Amino acid sequence: MRTRPALCFILGLGCFSAAQADIIGVKGSVDYWHYDSGLSSALGQPEMKDDSSLSFALAVEQN
Question: Which of 11, 51, 54, 62 lies 20 to 30 Å from 43, alpha-carbon distance?
Answer without folding.
Answer: 51
